[in-house]
Fold each of these.
Amino acid sequence: MAENEPGSEPLQEDARLNSLDARLRQAKSDEAVRTGEARGKGDDGYRLGNRVLAELIGGMVGGAVVGGALDYWLGTSPWLLLVLLFLGIASAFRNIIRISNQRSK
């Protein structure tokens, strides 16, 4: 008896609503790509690791190059090289600690 009552039939899907849903999904996807929010979360760890490695290598190489050049010009071999190499390493570790203390987005 309840089967014959008016209004008990399921509503048919409206093609306009389906089209609107598809356009909304596409617009959200385009906006995420435009603002940079579309990249995967798996990339964050990779980027952080590369940044830490670059800081460490850059600090050591920078200190060694500047120290070696100053030693060559001033004739104080190998003291400035060693001092600036250790300063570069200390600076790299300081930057790495600062990077690790930042909040992730």
Amino acid sequence: MEIMMFVVADPDVDPGEVDQEAVAEWDRTMAEQGVLKRAMRLRPVDEAVTVRVRGGETIVTDGPFTESKEWIAGYDVLEVPDLETAVEIAKGDVLARHGALELRPFWTLYGKD
């Protein structure tokens, strides 16, 4: 099962407090175990735009797609047997202490498991 793990930043937490070496070590460990398939950090929210089409009109607005003080800072794609395993893995990610990790299973394509 593939799981998208969104790394959700919390502006109330100083990003300077994040132990980048601990993050890198978690990534290395998960990759070595075959769990982490891909991980990417996203550019800051002030470089994002949101696109909506309403009544045939295209509306482009600055910023992230959510109406929230939190934003998606990056993502990991995990390969795990089930969601419960993904939760156990996410608990060990240092970034869970600095924001949130949203776990969302992918839809299977064309009805295949």
